[in-house]
Design a protein that fits this description.
Blueprint (H helix, E strand, L loop, with lengths): L4 E8 L2 E5 L7 E8 L2 E8 L3 E11 L6 E5 L9 E3 L10 H4 L2 H8 L14 E5 L1 E6 L4 E7 L7 E6 L4 E6 L4 E3 L4 E13 H12 L10 E5 L1 H4 L5 H10 L9 E4 L21 H11 L3 E6 L3 E3 L3 H5 L14 E3 L5 E3 L5 H17 L4 E4 L15 H16 L3 E4 L13 E3 L12 H4 L9 H10 L9 E3 L14 H14 L2 E4 L8 H11 L4 E8 L4 E8 L2 E8 L12
Parallel strand pairs: 15-16, 15-25, 16-17, 17-21, 21-22, 22-23, 23-24
Antiparallel strand pairs: 1-2, 1-5, 3-4, 4-14, 5-12, 5-13, 6-7, 6-9, 8-11, 9-10, 10-14, 11-12, 18-20, 19-20, 26-27, 27-28
Helix pairs in contact: 5-6, 8-9, 11-12
Length: 559
């Protein structure tokens, strides 16, 4: 038992209050600590708005103890840490300027959490403790994150373990009850512990998608994709044989982000339905990308309906993202905005005929508490709107806090974008944010978030590459990225024109597209840059040892 102590902050009647008492003038807290769970229910005595809530405990950490830190959203770095590691926040490169700091920080949790202190780490929704070399973990997992993000904080140097609920903005009326903590504690072998968490505790149904292998246009052409490129690369996939299952068109078909039904006629003169029909003609699922909560400042919808977007306290629209020349986020509680979102999904899915939508930059609607709701509640409402709008069609989420979509999305990105330069472009080398495109951290997340695959949804680790043009990778780096994706993921995408492949690349493509029976026994850092993965492939025991920094590995022994 941890004998947790309380730190709570709130506002009521226009004044701020702080309390360490479980019973006070503003609320009663019923806390139950058991060996396998922690549950706390708050009952408001007066109208109030919560701003902070922590249960603080003590825990001793040895040199071989590891803490898993699950990042804020899809792209956020997620890995195990020792007590001497340091999780880096925003560098001085971006913090010197308020605007730049705000825009860089919007992708992450920098305004809500602590970075840059040795042994200080945090994990969203779930975490685990593990002894180095052990297959057994002590898993802590929340089931109330759709009503406010749960954060597990540790100070491994000072021996502190805190359960924190991100409740800022949560408005309660007198008499309201709020389950402020509901956490499973499970000590078991890694796979067993996560089965217990997802299937027994969360009651999440098994994902509809088990595996998808195919093509996405982004990582070769980016927003310059055209209809001619789509048809050319679609025909080239004939060379891959029978293993291809999906062809996805990414960003670049629309005139402006947010104007999803206004197609760039120069690039796609026959429209998007024709593309979906062509994909179906090959026997593949047709996928398409959009950022459903975002609209570029230059978009028609942003110009014609300024009232549809999130505003600050002064009534000014808030810039939610600096991409596309700046973008606003839809206010999903505005009836006009809701109907607009439902309408473009109806057209894309039912008139154009797409089978899967990749939905990106979803965090943009929960960047700040508002309307008496905390960030977790805002995100959950957005996820529910997306599922309602998409019906039974397949959803691949991206740029989203993961606990918000467990059991709702069919698939989800679990790491940052891969970079077409293995070592990273100049901006990437500064590690500007923990969400920046990086092949190194894409692999880290793929390895350490493997627990979600086949439980919360089908994991999308992002793409691999086998082409030679428009790419700066060695053959070892190409195969390493592909192999890590194949071992730990279920959505296996590449972004190449297969017609440019030689016979060796074509054989590799068929190998990675082919479904295999993988089981990971152990994955852990051996040193600062080297990870060892012990796994079985189709019943054969194997070990993959990889250097993240330079991409060197023994992958040739494993393909």
């Amino acid at each position: 038992m941890y004998d947790f102590t309380l730190n709570a902050q709130l506002t009521s009647g226009g004044l701020s209050y702080f309390s360490t008492e479980f019973e006070n003038d503003y609320f009663t807290l019923d806390l139950k600590e058991e060996k396998t769970s922690v549950k706390a229910v708050l009952t408001a005595k007066k109208d109030l708005t919560l701003t902070d809530f922590e249960l603080n405990g003590k825990r001793t950490f040895a040199a071989d103890d590891l803490f898993f830190a699950n990042g804020f959203q899809s792209w956020s770095t997620s890995e195990e840490h020792t007590k001497t590691d340091v999780a880096k926040g925003l560098p001085k490169l971006v913090t010197f300027n308020g605007f730049v700091k705000t825009q860089a920080g919007q992708m992450g949790d920098y305004a809500y959490t602590t970075y840059d202190k040795p042994g200080n780490f945090h994990s969203f929704t779930f975490t685990y403790f593990r002894k180095k070399g052990s297959h057994f973990i002590e898993l802590w997992g929340s089931r109330v994150d759709r009503d406010g993000f749960t954060i597990f904080d540790v100070d491994m140097q000072e021996g502190r373990f805190t359960l924190r609920r991100e409740v800022d903005g949560t408005a309660l009326k007198a008499g309201d009850t709020y389950v402020i903590m509901d956490v499973l504690i499970c000590e078991a072998e890694y796979e067993t512990a996560f089965d217990t968490y997802f299937f027994d505790f969360l009651k999440v149904p098994k994902p509809r998608l088990r595996r998808l292998a195919g093509y996405t246009s982004w990582y070769n052409y980016f927003s310059k994709v055209t209809e001619d490129i789509v048809y050319r690369d679609l025909d080239a996939l004939d060379l891959a044989g029978d293993e291809t299952q999906i062809f996805q068109i990414d960003d670049g078909y629309q005139q402006h982000t947010g104007d999803w039904l206004l197609i760039d006629q120069k690039k796609f003169p026959h429209g998007m339905k024709a593309c979906a029909d062509a994909v179906h003609g090959k026997g593949y699922k047709a996928g398409i990308w959009l950022a459903p909560f975002c609209a570029a400042v230059t978009s028609k919808v942003a110009k014609e309906h300024p009232d549809w977007f999130i505003k600050d306290e002064k009534g000014k629209r808030v810039l939610a993202h600096f991409g596309w020349g700046g973008a606003y986020a839809f206010d999903i509680y505005n009836p006009g905005a809701r109907e607009y979102i439902k309408h473009f999904f109806d057209v894309i899915l039912n008139e154009w005929g797409y089978d899967l939508v990749k939905l990106d930059f979803l965090y943009s609607i929960c960047e700040r508490p508002r309307l008496g709701k905390n960030r977790g509640q805002l995100m959950a409402d957005g996820i529910d709107l997306l599922r309602e709008a998409c019906g039974e069609k397949l959803i691949l989420g991206c740029g989203v806090p993961l606990g918000s979509c467990f059991g709702i999305f069919d698939a989800c990105r679990i790491g940052p974008d891969a970079n077409k330069v293995y070592g990273g472009n100049p901006l990437n080398r500064f590690d500007v944010t923990r969400e920046i495109p990086s092949s190194r951290y894409a692999m880290v997340n793929t390895i350490y978030r493997r627990c979600l695959d086949g439980r919360a949804f089908a994991n999308d680790p992002d793409v691999f590459f086998l082409r030679d043009d428009n790419l700066d990778y060695s053959i070892l780096q190409k195969l390493l990225l592909a192999k890590v994706n194949d071992i730990c993921g279920s959505i296996i995408f590449m972004s190449d024109n297969v017609a440019t492949y030689d016979q060796r690349a074509l054989q590799y493509l068929k190998y990675f597209f082919e479904e295999k029976d993988y089981s990971v026994q152990l994955a852990e850092y051996e040193s600062a840059d080297v990870i060892r993965i012990e796994y079985t492939e189709n019943g054969s025991a194997k070990t993959l040892r990889l250097n993240l920094k330079d991409g060197y590995s023994n992958v040739m022994e494993n393909v």
